[in-house]
Amino acid sequence: MLIYDLDLDSLTKLLQEWDEPAYRAKQIWQGLYQHLYDSPEQFTNLSKSLREKLAENVTFAPFKVKTYLDSSDGFTRKTLLELPDKNLIEAVLMKYGDPADNPQIKTSAPNSENLRGAKNRRTLCISTQVGCAMGCVFCATGQMGFKRHLSSGEIVAQVLFYARMLKERNEVVTNIVLMGMGEPFHNYDNTTEAIDRLNDPSGFNFGARRFTISTVGLVPQIRRFADEKRQVNLAISLHAADDESRVAMLPVNKRYKIDDVIEACKYYVEQTHRRITFEWALIHGVNDSPEVAKKLAARLKGLMCHVNAIPLNPTTGYNGQATSRERAAKFKETLEQAGIPCTIRMRRGIDIHAGCGQLAGAV
Ligand code: SAH
Ligand code: SF4
Q1: Whether residues 112 and 199 fall in one domain
Q2: Same domain, 122 and 49
Q3: Does 283 contact ligand 1 (Cβ within 6 A)?
Q4: Are 287 and 269 found together in one domain?
Q5: Active-site residue numbers?
Q6: Domain termination site, one of 57, 80, 97
Q7: Which of 71, 286, 291, 323 is the most exposed place for a label (fewest CB within 10 A)?
Q8: Rounded to whole angstroms, how far apart are CA atoms 143 and 135?
Q9: Are residues 90 and 227 in the same domain?
Q10: Which residue is closest in CA terms to ligand 1's atom 19?
Q11: Are 83 and 155 in a shared domain?
């Protein structure tokens, strides 16, 4: 049993079974999620016998670090993690602005607001599955197929792993995006449980608004997510403005058409009053023309939303080319003229295959 798979209630029950007082569960919870302990010996506030019991009955090691890869820009680190069943997953840390460059931040106390400022962003991109069943043609994870779901604890543990690494440098995780390997809404329960566990104020206390879930557009789950009303950000991978071209890239569009996805997005905005993001990988000559931008704007009209476009990242299984800087700028301009806000995202970590859609559990 992986300790990170337990929520506070299950941990409390386990300790009850061991005839331990209830406050012990709280102590373990704080050890795991506030002090970021990753082995029973670190829990010096527990009795030796309880530490031994923990060591015998639960595991604190969700995976082994296989390799680290740092991008040449110095701002992206990808870690390849080996699960006990030998499956590999990837988790990526992206830095925006180094505290060493900013004396004000350098001298500030850990966890101060300065450490959470925009210049000091530390964004984690984590995985929810080994592989992915959705088969999007331009995505390396899709190209490898589906292996298995990650447990909630395996999702949580990726965050704690980087949180410990950052703590050594007096830094903190500021944003978490569920945009690594896998489709989070295909593994709905484990993904939302992981978010809720990390969100717990008596533990890791990571604000809901600092999470972003990205989905390929699984309609029933978008509606369920809307009903559950978490303050988590939602991004939808759209990539095309008509069903014919979307189905050629995203096979899931056979099942859920663009209209159905947009209807579900409207419902989400109504229920949560949160702005929704649409993701768009700009592929030269496929979905990057002003005509496509106009078509997209017409479909999104009236919806509280934002388009996040990124030039396609290369993968071995797909021939499409990234759009040029000029065409990307034109795409953005056309959308904005039609009233739809758009940002062109920088490509990150391409040299270490840590960019969007490049994660395939390999170096
Ligand atoms: N399965 C989820 C989240 C993981 S993919 C989803 O599809 O939304 C994260 C983002 O990377 C998605 O928006 C996805 O469409 C995008 N993506 C996949 N392959 C890409 C590529 N080669 N270049 C740029 N973006 C890509
Ligand atoms: Fe899966 Fe997302 Fe890749 Fe599509 S883009 S194959 S849904 S990980």
Answers
A1: yes
A2: no
A3: no
A4: yes
A5: 90, 356
A6: 57
A7: 291
A8: 6
A9: yes
A10: 357
A11: yes
Contact 314, 360 (CB under 8 A): no
Place of tokens 């990650």: 150
- SS3 state of residue 279: strand
Q: What is the Å distance from ligand 1's center to 180 Cα?
A: 8
Q: Where are the alpha helices (DSSP H) in the chain?
A: 8-17, 23-33, 48-57, 103-106, 140-144, 152-167, 188-199, 219-228, 243-249, 258-272, 290-300, 325-337
Per-residue model confidence as pLDDT tens for the chain (363 residues): 999 999 999 999 999 999 999 999 999 999 999 999 999 999 999 999 999 999 999 999 999 999 999 998 888 999 999 999 999 999 999 997 544 443 333 333 444 444 455 668 999 999 999 999 999 999 999 999 999 999 999 999 999 999 999 999 999 999 999 999 999 999 999 999 999 999 999 999 999 999 999 999 999 999 999 999 999 999 999 999 999 999 999 999 999 999 999 999 999 999 999 999 999 999 999 999 999 999 999 999 999 999 999 999 999 999 999 999 999 999 999 999 999 999 998 777 888 888 888 888 876
- Both 113 and 223 in a single domain? yes
pTM comes to 0.94
**Among 129, 214, 250, 323, which is best to mutate for testing ligand 1, by the most ligand atoms less than 8 A from CB?**
214
Find all residues with CB under 8 Å of 26, minimum gap 6, and list them. Answer: 8, 202
How do 121-125 and 88-96 pair as beta strands? antiparallel
Length of the chain: 363
CATH of the domain at 343: 3.20.20.70
Asked whether 213 and 191 are in contact (CB, 8 A), the reply is yes
